[in-house]
């Protein structure tokens, strides 16, 4: 070879080099934008990327063709990894953008008539009178009047609606879906004698209930609400799971307090007693304020999930290992042994919902809720979750809402990554006695309720509030 003669480089080599640099810059930029890594981790990562790019550049521009080919193969593999990383990062950004957007609660309404009515479709109600509950009536009337013209009368209680229809004192009624499902449970005669001719939704702006703190330094309470529906997470519904997670980043403890769904409590803003589960009908803001009042605690944040959420999360985690205190068979036909059970999504949901087969009914179900949540937390902190990260956040996006901000979520994750905290989880369970009382949401007959045991409330409140003392 003549001295000074340059080795020709293939255009492909230059393309690989430029593409490698661009993908690296984009990957690092997105990591910085997401701001999920502690600064020391981010600095190490940038250093690793710089070294990899330097080494690959030497290989790509080596004078020996075999080394260049080898460098090209390595660079192609590296670029593929960067593309996968960028996809993960974009999914994370999309997830963080959407997870906290829950300014509105969705109410789902049924337009109902008796089975023998000649009214079968929405247009048939033109010029007729509709009976509806006063709450949110202006929004209901506004939405429905876009399609039909009608007269209306208002009543105070939903049970007044069902009674008026059955007694033929009202021809057409409008009833909200969560109350409709209470009637399914408590008044099946009403359901069998009536029909739904139209469904529509109304979005209502929720009251702000957030009380922000620095969650990486100060203790905080999170209300975890599990509503008894599939599908749209913004829909109001009965809150079957009511857990308070008291998280203290100073001493690395989590207290999970379970509140029975049928606890007989005074509803916030209603000045009437009802089951706690029925508070969810009026929105998560009502549930939170109700709990704050009777427990004398401050709730900083909330996380709201539904049946869909639990099934998806557990399946995406590859199942969870739940420690059951009891051996039982659920109403859905799933069998659980005492001790550790590896559960998929449907099995975890059935485990969480069952109460009739448990020795202490709803009290035991509350303990099962704690066991499932603990299993999810433990599985989420394992390294194996990293391989399921992208699909996990995709599954969470449409089926979980919270009022944590993006920066609060990322700051907490950074703290966990930086300190690798081993959380100590303890459990509290509010107690009560069986009873039957009239409820605000269903006044026709007395329903089963749990009369709160004040001593268990006082004890739990004291334990929770102790975490907030300096």
What does this structure look like?
The structure is a single chain. 43% of the residues lie in helices and 25% in strands. The mean pLDDT is 88. The chain has a 6-stranded mixed β-sheet with strand order 16-11-6-7-8-17, sandwiched between helices. Strands 3-2-4-1-5 form a 5-stranded mixed β-sheet, sandwiched between helices. Strands 9-10 form a two-stranded antiparallel ribbon. The termini are far apart. It is globular and about 95 Å long. It is α+β, with helices and mostly antiparallel strands and 470 residues long. It has 3 domains: 89 residues, no CATH class; 102 residues, Periplasmic binding protein-like II (D-Maltodextrin-Binding Protein, domain 2); 247 residues, LCP protein (Aminopeptidase), CATH 3.40.630.
Features:
470 residues; alpha+beta; 5-stranded mixed beta sheet; D-Maltodextrin-Binding Protein, domain 2
The value of Rg in angstroms is 28 Å
Query: How many helical elements?
Result: 15
Q: Strand pairing plus helix content: what structural class?
A: alpha+beta
Question: Any idea what the CATH superfamily of the largest domain is called?
Answer: LCP protein
Q: Give helix % range.
A: 40-55%
Shape: globular
